Hints:
Layout: E1 4-11, E2 14-21, H1 25-45, H2 51-91
Antiparallel strand pairs: 1-2
Helix pairs in contact: 1-2
Amino acid sequence: xxxxxxxxxxxxxxxxxxxxxxxxxxxxxxxxxxxxxxxxxxxxxxxxxxxxxxxxxxxxxxxxxxxxxxxxxxxxxxxxxxxxxxxxxxxx
Length: 92
């Protein structure tokens, strides 16, 4: 069984008490800060009205960023594998 820790976070000036596995508190705080920043930016743009629509936009923005990051990681992994092969071939 995983031990859980209570974590206080603030998102759009609302306080929440959330639980997460022990040792993951910093990750949860960082995720909440990232979400809050994304929601604040959407709110400041004035183009999206309503909390539900803002949450959907934030989720889509963050998902798109995750996909971009995953694609960059795949590109780097491919380049690293090619570099490793080149080094191995050169040394043999």
